[in-house]
Amino acid sequence: MRDEQSLKKTPLHLIHVASGARMVEFGGWDMPVQYPDGILSEVRSVRNNAGMFDVSHMARFQFVGPEAVAFLDRMLAADVAGLRQGRARYHVICNEQGGIIDDAIVYRVTEDQCLLVANAGNADAVKEFLIPAAQENGGVFFADLSDDVAMIAVQGPNAVEIVDRLCPLPASSVRPFRLRRGEVAGIPSRIARTGYTGEDGFEIMPPADRATDLWRALEAEGVVPAGLGARDVLRLEAGLMLHGNDMMVENNPYEAGLERFTYIETPGYIAGEALKAIRDAGTPRVITGFRMVGRGIPRHGLPVINDGKEVGIVTSGTHSPTLDDNIGMGYVDRDLSNEGTRFEIDVRGRLVEAEVVPLPFYSRKRS
To answer: Which is nearest to 190 in space by CA: 214, 175, 206?
Structure first.
């Protein structure tokens, strides 16, 4: 763990501390893991009303120039050229061997400008992968906007209605996986209809020096601050992957269940040949969702056992307060990944039965 003084801090750091948040190190940043009311209360707020997360620690990289789109098309598994202006795409960033460097969202801002939002812990790895290649291309200009632009995620069944009250655009006119400019609480921002909780909502990107004003305006409208602990529970309930847990550079998108977010047909795509070979050969293991039949919570790194043999590993697990069930994800032998299949999790030397269930564990029924 890094010394606290060496950790990076978001523009909202002081407001977290003043609110009594418990701060922890995450990806080199000093981040709130929970607020005084606790993780369960924060999860309930997001599922029943609206919560907000400081996600300013995530990287925001801008690529501009006449070759920007073609360049990203060769580097990302995203069909960037196929995106219309103002649209976004979730995808994986793979190295030449097909290993997952990160999962990210790319936004086609204008004809020759794109925004790439990457995970905080992988920001340096993404830059090391993309920047040298961009520098070799005279028509691509890179800018790291992470220090200048903050990002606040507002999520929950009432998130759209609440942000609409602060946004004359209105925010509800921004469709899912779209990006538009508008004012929120009088603050010029980029408004993206994206998130990481399984709920509707936005990721709002104001200037860093106005982030506190926006946070306070949202809180005044009844949006509840939430930390990394609640975010992790919510994303797992929604069956969403976490890089560093559920996928790493040693994994490829086919075993990680991300093939539908992996576009490999762009001519000259850097990982195209490797990924086609992996796809055609198949993978012996695959990420799988399961619920615990016996009593016990699956935790990251616990072995998956079948007929006395280790056949996989838990990558994420928790108690789901929304479902009142213990749930997890992990890599298991492909022939054990079918719904209804049972195996065991070694929970501190005690074998606890688990059953394969489809992902996501939770999804909101849309009216």
So the answer is: 206
